[in-house]
Specification:
heterotrimer; A mainly alpha (225); B alpha/beta (477); C alpha/beta (391); A: Fumarate Reductase Cytochrome B subunit; C: Cytochrome-c3 Hydrogenase, Chain A, domain 2; 41% helix
Chain lengths: 225, 477, 391
């Protein structure tokens, strides 16, 4: 705009809000649908065994039942359960119940729901950030987590952490000028969207599929999984 | 070999290096299905015609929507490790359940995701090698009983046990299965029993039971309600079982029979992970049941035999049965509910119970054994985690047939031991011969004086029995 | 960015224009600004009050007020040439439509506005002659004020001409002898509404064309009158460019976001929002974020200086801030859409891409399924004989 290659903060914001957002949504939708279709197209073999219970009921039950942790697992991994649950909820609340996000969803998809007051979302964001940091430290220190972790695990941690952090900084107007702060937040959210279908962030969607299949397999045998 | 070479899987980068240069790549299976089926095997890379290609082909066959959903969902949280007795008691992260599936995951990502295929196309991404399958053999067999506890705990809902069963298909086809399980499978197919037991051995036992009880053990009774199957381990280690059911069924007036054609319920094919072997063995049960025209087949006090016949069997032979399959505990509980079992007296010592994984978590038989315990026990106490979340004894899934895994098997048992210690029972009750053997051996090795009994025998001990017929009296004297 | 940097590049780049050191209009000595003000009845107290306000706006300490007063007292009338291109005259209206005479417009009166085709009496060739005369008389000394954008060098010049001279030609000609350029209004500063997509006239901003002279942008649609006069006052006082932000706007006026000085900010912080223009929240004066207020990203002085002699300002009258002082505000999405809402229809992109992804995924999935089925058809049954060979 200022007849040079330099990009002003407003150019940056317009770029992230406009073309880049479209691009990110496109990559996300395309990639995620490909991933889901790849899963569903594989199908399941016909099951000839006489069922003891309902596969569908079992599958649906497990969708929500896995939110509860059994006492034994909680006892052996309280940190995972508490911190993991906390930051997941925090992330989802900040994503779906922050007023600017509600407005964005309303304008993009035409659906809206009540939002939470900003100070509440702010407090939840702090908890989420702390939870994510704690989760990272835990991943670095815990023998099993460290053993299992690949580069991808750390990448998706960063990709998840950054939108929350930049959102917090933008809300508190810690980065100036504001269009830069907001642009950074949008950019990191777009990175999250673009990376999602190609990493294990797909679990946001596929975990429901996985839970259903798990619950259906066990439910068919009369076991509540 | 030729099959693998001709299939599209073989021209993937994963296996491309080992494809003979002369392989006719134009001859794709879609074009020449007949040629593929009749193709003569190419030189095998391993005795028995097992090879990496064959293993990968077998793994490919096992891929389905649940597998893809599960691999897509794992975030390496490691919670499955906390559910696994092998990890909990060794502390070695390589025993984390999901890690045991790494070769299968790599193959899935490389061949069944667009992203993985793109990576492979530009020479990126891992490939499954023969060395990898060799390295994973102990992880998939020695340190996993397919108990399914991890499948219950995984927050994203991954049914890990389901995938372990599938991964073993690849191990067998690539020639990376444990010797003990191979031997058991060969014996099972050749002799009808994984322990090489013959009918004549059982026949001696039948005679003994008949003598002791004065009852007749029905053999090959056409049109009986129930076909009773046994496990070799029971026949050898726990002959009381046959005597117990003979008594109970006589008491309840159940029409039942043994089959000389097929008495073995266990299925080494399910344990080693070969649906072909599994189908061969299940087919024998089905043939016997159909020949005798029975309405029901009873799986003995054996966990995996039940899941093999009840759940996997129909899928192995690709048809539904014309009969129903029950575990003996289900039958006993049904008789109890119908009031056909009259008992007297109760055990007064403190009894606790070990739920076999295959029966409880993997088949939903949980309340039945507790209802039966109520009949005959005054002081019954459950282990803290029981039923669907019970801990495995450490011997299932073929581990007990795999001599190499002996030390790990005993390590995993420590979890069970800790559970048992917490409730301080006088005796343990269970309903699976493998579990029972493991409990007995384990408790003995750890110098815990806690006898283990089978629930069926316990019921039989408390039956209100009619006076034995005079003929039996004579025979006994 | 919130406070001016004494050492910011913009400040250092600015050449010192000692405007008052050399009388601008020869041969007759002009009365000083102080004299003119007093002649117009502005009291000493009123004058000092203005000086104090100027000091505050320029983020100077109170100790600088006497210095400002002294400098303004003795300042001479600088020559100003005002060029209006593709504009709506709103900026001029803003400057001239004061309710009563103020120090600001008196200062404006004191400048020698040698050419302003809206305000001057002369027309046609006489007007153009006045411009040339002023340029010649004050070569290298005059301040060029521009409002409106102009068709760029590559655009059809016919979109906007004055006396047959294209805007581009007139700007480039006039800027040669200017000491500095003040781009007044968002059109001059950033292109403004004429530049709005699809920009039919090829409009560009002054700073896109003027590369060899200092350019100060006084953006706003229109800008606050006091911001214009304040910039001029700073010239008169210090003889150099003020501290500028990344858009070459005086930090003194554009250093803080509307949101940060908005009297409705406490409602934002508490999460109390008007959701329509006539709901309970709107009546109670709650935050207008959800009605599209761009206050968080708009940098201007409206919240503190207000309009119409401090009577009110848009947010106070219940209208969300449009962010008119910001580049691209005209193309940054709906005025009544919340700041977080992207322009365009990303929802449609999502659906289209999703449909495409489903088709692509179905194809990829079918390939995968074929691979699995083929493996199944090629299945070599494991036999006891084969297994036995391994023992």
């Amino acid at each position: 705009m200022i007849a040079s290659l330099e990009m002003t903060s407003m150019d940056f914001l317009m770029w992230t809000k406009g073309p880049l957002f479209q691009l990110a949504l496109t990559v996300f939708a395309l990639g995620m649908l490909v991933r889901l279709m790849e899963i569903f197209m594989l199908g399941r073999e016909h099951n000839y065994a006489l069922p003891r219970g309902s596969a569908v009921a079992g599958g649906l039950r497990t969708l929500y039942r896995r939110f509860y942790t059994d006492a034994g697992t909680f006892k052996s991994a309280p940190f995972d359960v508490v911190v993991g649950t906390l930051w997941h909820i925090g992330f989802i609340v900040a994503l779906l119940l922050f007023i600017p996000h509600v407005e964005l969803i309303k304008a993009t998809f035409g659906i809206a729901w009540p939002a939470l007051p900003n100070p509440v979302v702010d407090a939840i964001t702090v908890i989420t950030l702390l939870g994510l940091l704690a989760a990272l430290v835990h991943r670095l220190l815990h023998p099993v987590k460290r053993f299992l972790s690949t580069h991808e695990d750390y990448v998706i941690w960063a990709v998840t952490f950054l939108p929350v952090l930049t959102g917090y900084l933008a809300y508190h107007r810690i980065i100036n000028p504001y269009p830069l702060a907001l642009g950074l937040h949008i950019l990191t959210a777009e990175i999250f969207l673009v990376v999602l279908p190609f990493t294990k962030l797909t679990h946001i969607f596929t975990a429901w599929v996985a839970r259903y299949y798990n619950g259906a397999t066990f439910g068919r045998k009369g076991v509540q999984s | 070999m030729t099959d693998a070479v001709l299939s599209p899987g073989a021209d993937s980068v994963a296996t491309g290096d080992t494809v003979p240069p002369a392989a006719p790549r134009v001859a794709r299976p879609a074009d020449q299905p007949a040629a593929r089926r009749t193709a003569q095997p190419a030189p095998a890379t391993r005795a028995g015609n097992f090879s990496l290609q064959r293993g990968l082909q077998a793994l490919r066959e096992e891929m389905d929507a649940p597998v893809a959903a599960f691999f897509s969902s794992c975030v390496h949280c490691g919670l499955c490790a906390t559910a696994c007795p092998f990890f909990v008691e060794t502390g070695d992260p390589k025993y984390t359940p999901i890690y045991k599936l790494e070769p299968m995951r790599i193959l899935w990502e490389r061949e069944l995701t667009l992203w993985g295929r793109l990576k492979a196309a530009v020479g990126l991404g891992k490939q499954v090698t023969d060395e990898m399958l060799a390295e994973w053999e102990p992880l998939l067999y020695d340190s996993c009983t397919m108990c399914g506890r991890c499948s219950m705990v995984c927050p994203v809902g991954n049914d890990i046990q389901y995938m372990i069963r599938k991964a073993r298909e690849g191990q067998v086809a690539s020639g990376h299965a444990p010797e003990g399980l191979i031997a058991a499978s060969v014996r099972a197919v050749r002799t009808g029993s994984p322990m090489g037991l013959k009918w004549k051995t059982l026949d001696v036992q039948i005679k003994h039971v008949e003598t002791a009880t004065g009852l007749t053990v029905p053999i090959d009774q056409q049109g009986a309600d129930y076909l009773v199957l046994l496990s070799s381990m029971e026949i050898i280690n726990f002959p009381e079982y046959l005597e117990a059911i003979t008594k109970i069924f006589a008491h309840a007036g159940v029409s039942w029979t043994l089959s000389e054609q097929c008495f073995e319920a266990t299925n080494a094919g399910v344990q080693i992970g070969s649906k072909d072997i599994a189908a061969t063995l299940v087919q024998r049960v089905v043939d016997a049941a159909e020949r005798l025209d029975v309405k029901h087949v009873i799986s003995p006090e054996c966990g995996h035999a039940y899941t093999a016949i009840r759940w996997e069997g129909p899928n192995a032979i690709k048809r539904a049965y014309p009969f129903q399959v029950f575990h003996i505990i289900e039958v006993l509980d049904q008789l109890r509910a119908e009031g056909r079992i009259k008992t007297q007296g109760k055990e007064t010592d403190r009894l606790s119970m070990h739920d076999p994984c295959n029966l409880a978590r993997k088949s939903g038989v949980i309340q039945q054994q507790r209802d039966l315990m109520d009949l005959i026990a005054d002081d019954f106490v459950d282990l803290k985690e029981h039923g669907r979340l019970q801990w495995c004894c450490g011997a299932g899934g073929g581990v007990s047939s795999n001599e190499r895994a002996a030390a790990l098997k005993m390590a995993a048992f420590k979890r069970k031991k800790a559970q048992i210690e917490a409730v301080e029972p006088d005796r343990m009750v269970t309903m699976c011969a493998t579990c029972r053997t493991q409990l007995e051996e384990g408790l003995e090795e750890l110098t815990m004086d806690i006898p283990v009994v089978g629930l069926t025998e316990l019921i039989a001990d408390h039956l209100v029995m009619p006076e034995p017929p005079p003929a039996a009296e004579e025979a006994r004297s | 960015m919130a406070s001016p940097h004494p050492e910011s590049p913009a400040g250092r780049l600015a050449p010192p224009l000692r405007l008052q050191s050399k009388p601008l209009r020869q041969p007759q000595p002009e009365p000083s600004l102080g004299e003119i003000l007093r002649r117009n009845g502005v009291s000493r107290r009123g004058f000092l009050k203005f000086c104090a306000a100027t000091a505050t706006l320029m983020a100077l300490p109170p100790s600088m007020v006497p210095a400002i007063a002294a400098a303004l007292e003795t300042a001479r009338r600088p020559s100003v040439i005002w060029l209006s291109f593709q504009e709506c005259t709103g900026c001029t209206e803003s400057l001239t439509r004061s309710v009563s005479p103020t120090v600001e417009n008196l200062i404006l009166d004191t400048i020698s506005l040698d050419y302003h085709h809206t305000l001057q009496a002369a027309a046609g060739e006489a007007a153009e002659h006045a411009r040339e005369e002023a340029m010649n008389a004050n070569q290298g000394q005059y301040i060029l004020v521009v409002d409106g954008s102009l068709p760029g060098p590559d655009a059809n010049p016919g979109y906007s001409t004055i006396a047959g001279i294209s805007n581009y030609e007139m700007l480039m000609d006039t800027v040669k002898g200017a000491a500095a350029v003040v781009a007044v209004g968002t059109c001059a500063a950033f292109g403004g509404l004429p530049k709005a997509d699809p920009n039919p006239s090829g409009a560009v901003a002054v700073q896109d064309l003027v590369k060899d002279k200092p350019v100060i942008n006084v953006s706003g649609c229109p800008p606050l009158p006091m911001v214009i006069t304040g910039v001029l006052a700073q010239f008169l006082t210090f003889g150099k460019l003020p501290e500028l932000d990344e858009y070459r706007r005086p930090l003194a006026f554009f250093g803080q976001a509307i949101h940060d000085r908005c009297y409705r900010r406490p409602f934002y912080d508490k999460g109390l929002f008007a959701e329509s223009f006539d709901d309970k929240g709107a009546k109670a004066g709650w935050c207008l974020y959800r009605l599209g207020c761009k206050g968080p990203m708009a940098y201007n002085a409206c919240a503190t200086m207000k309009w119409n002699s401090g009577a009110s300002w848009p947010i106070e009258s219940g209208a969300p801030c449009l962010g008119c002082s910001e580049p691209n505000f005209w193309d940054a999405g709906g005025f009544y859409d919340a700041l977080s809402v992207p322009p365009g229809r990303p929802g449609e992109a999502l659906l289209t891409a999703g449909a495409l992804g489903a088709a692509l995924g179905a194809a990829a999935g079918a390939l995968g399924r074929r691979k699995v089925k083929t493996a199944g058809l090629a299945h070599q049954a494991v036999t006891a004989d084969q297994l036995e060979q391994q023992l």
